[in-house]
Design a protein that fits this description.
With 160 residues, chain A is α+β, with helices and mostly antiparallel strands. Chain A has helices at 25-32, 88-95, 105-118, 124-130, 142-159, and strands at residues 4-10, 13-19, 51-54, 57-60, 73-75. In chain A, 34% of the residues lie in helices and 16% in strands. In chain A, helix 2 packs across helix 5. Chain B folds into three domains: 6-28 and 460-605, Aldehyde oxidase/xanthine dehydrogenase, molybdopterin binding domain (Aldehyde Oxidoreductase, domain 4); 33-141 and 209-303, Alpha-Beta Complex (Aldehyde Oxidoreductase, domain 3); 377-458 and 609-763, Aldehyde Oxidoreductase, domain 4, CATH 3.30.365.10. Chain B is 29% helix and 25% strand. The chains are: A alpha+beta (160), B alpha+beta (764).
Chain lengths: 160, 764
Amino acid sequence: MSKHHVSTTINGEPTEFLCEAQQTLLDVLRDELLLTGSKEGCSSGDCGACSVIVDGNVVCSCLMLGVEAEGHTIQTIEGIAQGDKLHPVQQKFLEHAALQCGFCTPGLIVAAKALLDENLNPTEEEARYWLAGNLCRCTGYDKVIRAVLDAAAEMRGAAQ
Amino acid sequence: MNAFAKEDLRVVGTRPVRPDGVDKVTGRANFGADMTMPGMLWGRIKRSPHAHARIIGINTEKAAALPGVKAVVTRADFPDVAPERAYIGEAPANLRDLSRNCIAQGKVLYEGHAVAAVAAVSPAVAAQAVDLIEVDYEVLPHVMDVEAAMASDAPLLHDDVFTVGVDPKPAKPSNVAKVVRFKKGDIEAGFAEAEHIIERRYTTKPVHQAYIEPHACVVSVGSDNQCTIWSSSQGHFMVRGYTSRIVGAEIADIRAIPAEIGGGFGGKTIVYLEPVAYMLSKKSGRPVKIVMSREEVFRGSGPTSGAVVEVKLGAKKDGRIVAGQVVLKYQAGAFPGSPVNQGAMCAFASYDLPNVDVVGYDVLSNRPKVAAYRAPGSPIAAFGVESCMDELARELRIDPLELRAKNAAKDGTKAAHGPTWANIGYINTVEAAKRTEHYQTPLGPNQGRGVASGFWFNAGGESSAAVHVNEDGTVTVTEGHPDIGGSRASMAMMVAEVLGVPYDRVRPVVGDTTAIGFSAVTGGSRVTFAGGMAVTRATEQVVEELKRRAAVTWDISPEAVEWRDGQAFPAGANAGSFEPLSLAALAAKSARTGGPISAEVQLNAQGAGPGFATHICDVEIDRETGYVKILRYTAVQDVGRAIHPAYVEGQMQGGVAQGVGWALNEEYIYDQDGRLENPGFLDYRVPVAPDMPMIETVLVEVPNPRHPFGARGCGEVPIVPPMATVANAICDAIGIRMRDLPMSPPKVLAALDETMPPTRAAAE
């Protein structure tokens, strides 16, 4: 199998990789680039553990081929914090104990960050529906939603 | 009496950020599938397409010849394992069964049963190779349903299983692997005395733990048989123990290193992959990684039992229950070992009944071997008993919490399964539920409120912990239990509390099997209890050592040294006048006072306090679609004492959500050939964020006197009440009793159409 050459921007860095035609973006991130923060929970787009942001949109990286990443800008969980400064969503997940096992957490944080990029004042219902594609089996979502709403409130405060 | 009084606590009971938190919100934490080794191969498992078939032959030639394939294994590569009950995981398991569950011998017993495996240079080559393995099957008749499997003419899964627990021993083999019975008083006399008798039948479907992380491992075996296993599990000592027995290796040759675990809920207390990866690694001479797909998780790993639950209650008109009878028929799947024994013990554990008779059947069928799932067995029995309690309350026109209070087990009550209760908080949860604002709030049209209670034993058992004072006065605590939901935080908190130092001076580590003494699984709600005891005791020994070191420094007797606020003080005026010595000061001088300061404790913890919970749920029914909306949910639970209350609440909330999924949507759907039709999260629908409201929690604290801080296990009992709680709420809303899970929209709609209650007719 000959490999394809792909040029992208990942977490702000120009990144090139070689991949096979059938490899998903998730396979490439995890197995070729060793960005293992994105998790594989289902490989069918149902669990959201592999959520990444592609050109501003939340995407299940298991549903996108590696070759489709050509020319696109990708943000993964590894690129959400700025150096050692956590994103408010990350900080609030910690403060609210919004993770138990932590496996769905990268996907939830990526998706929540994308929500707040778009809407800094989501209602509880909006947050729940935005995150409907991110399964969490541990928390019952209560503390997750509280963390996201609290992060939004803090970011609104900071924006003023 | 607890060693530490609540009012003196400074760390325990607070909500610090977990020590592994930053790793987990930034993607740095390494879970099972995140490990990579130089030269590593990718393993993949060939699985049966049939529910029941004899394996006539396996041809691996084409697979082995595929370029990039480095090893192929079949049953022939594994040693025979003698039948033996081993207590390695959460529940006793027969090692031969477990071996044959990892890779089939002679017959496949369910669709998805492993028959062979390959290791190749890439996942794609491995997948191709698996397709090239040819298995010749003779398809056999199969049986899925629990009652069909109990019939005398049912297809037999095993010709060497004779029902255990009946006297005399049966002459014919059977799919009924075991019968259990718990009796108290005289059940006939009880029903004769009753003024009101109610008898109902309930059914539940098998549901999967549905941890988001699929099973994964990397195994490396050298030519000297030295082996390292990296895997995600609820216990790396469990992984080591089972793997050694299944592959025929010595325990000392296996080092099991725990990855972070992405959810388990009981389902990762046994092994599926590690022995297979071991054989592939041994054969290829290279490290082998196997990661299950989600489909494999559903087809090949353990759900909990589907079941039939028959309940009969006899009561006086005033609501006092004088007789309780239950028959439980639990699916075991392909090998004996459903949690029916626990279900039978839990059935009436919340109540003080004079006459009880509980019978349970452990029934084989052509489904995956069941695995532990959060309070194994109890939620199934509770769905029946707690639904029936509600039906009784309605017929007697008694408030359902009042009915429970009237019959509640209290200290001194002898439970039907044996123990006499002491220091239990069941009635406290009922009273606290009654007092909630939730229980008093009025409901709207098509809305209803349900309540139900639940019980779980909680476990103790073997744990180890080591506490090391580092040269700079920081502290490392090593424990042997994988952290599945914040236990590093609670361990560090207990150490900090005992030492009198800030929480952030203590770093907790989950040590591998060579770094810390044997520790049983993270399961049975045991870690904060048993692990907490080990950690506390080790820290207390360190404190004693620190006092000795201060005494040496001051040249006084150790009895004359007092330890408080993280410092050594002379105990009184007679002890002499010395400036206090801090932990850091003592650590810096430890070489001169006797060497490194640390302690390791191994124990077998006894006295886990039982857990009781009472839940309240409001639902609203959409009469057009049958959709059940969970409007409001309150979970009340006796947690003994919450070490880290946020993670205790999290356990309660998570258990509720899983229970709501079990109640409303989750089920395995098989076609007529015994093939699973919904092996993915699209069609096996677990709760998503919009399905749930905020989940209110009420932490009742009746301290467990056997734990230094009063902790009880808290992780499992929250999944016990929800199914009945929701069913009771649905009945309250629309007057229809749903007795078969899941109460999914089509079933609720069908029930509505069948009854056409007046309110609906009037509306049309």
